[in-house]
Amino acid sequence: MSTLPTATPFGAVRINRENLPEGQHLCEYCTAKCCRYFALPMDTPESFEEFEFLRWFLLHDRASVFKEDDDWYMLVHTTCKHLGHDNRCGIYETRPQICRDYTTDNCEYDEDWTYDFYLETPEQVWEYTEAVIQEPGKSIRSRKPNPLAVLA
Questions:
Q1: Is the confidence at residue 19, as pLDDT, over 80?
Q2: C-alpha distances in Å from residue 14, one per residue of 30, 44, 79, 110
Q3: Cα dihedral 78→83→87→89 (10° resolution)
Q4: Rounded distance, CA 28 to CA 45, Å?
Q5: Which contacts qualify for 46-50: CB closer than 8 Å, 24 or more apart?
Q6: How far apart (Å, rounded) are the C-alpha atoms in residues 63 and 37?
Q7: Distance, CA of 44 to CA of 73 (rounded, Å)
Q8: Angle formed by the axes of helices 122-132 and 48-57, to 10°?
């Protein structure tokens, strides 16, 4: 009984970017991180209403918000429907232009992303909103305590 060789899934073998063999492509060693989400830039929220939209966004599955430098992004954790089980593109020859233009020069291949500012729940948005949006004359800070009596 003969068995057909199966393609090794992209990402099954990891190497450091600087050790990429001549003539090979970094994608061959990746688990297709770039095909598992998309991030859209958004205006910086400034009003209560705009933060309520953020809260509404995060009431939906697989959405989060992050800041990179001073730029805000909506992150949608979703896998491209043409990504194969072997981490290869199922429509490579007819893939969208954005995919054709994407390069591995600055991709996140060897980075485990952590964000300085990341919101993933509507409760986090509410807490952040309370901290940055305050009604005039109201503060979320406790009042200044009276000084302790000094015994002489």
A1: yes
A2: 7, 37, 21, 9
A3: -140
A4: 39
A5: 47/133, 48/129, 48/133
A6: 10
A7: 9
A8: 170
Task: Please tell me the predicted confidence (pLDDT) of residue 104.
Answer: 87
Contact (Cβ atoms closer than 8 angstroms) between residue 30 and residue 11: yes
- Could you give the CA distance from residue 130 to residue 124 in angstroms, rounded to a whole number? 10
CA distances from 103 to 34, 56, 97, 108, 109 (A): 10, 33, 12, 11, 11
Residue 123: CB atoms within 10 A of its CB come to 11
Determine the residue type at 29: Y
Structure tokens at 93: 């020859």
73-to-22, 48, 49, 138 alpha-carbon distances in Å: 36, 18, 17, 30
Residue 41 vs residue 141, higher pLDDT: 41
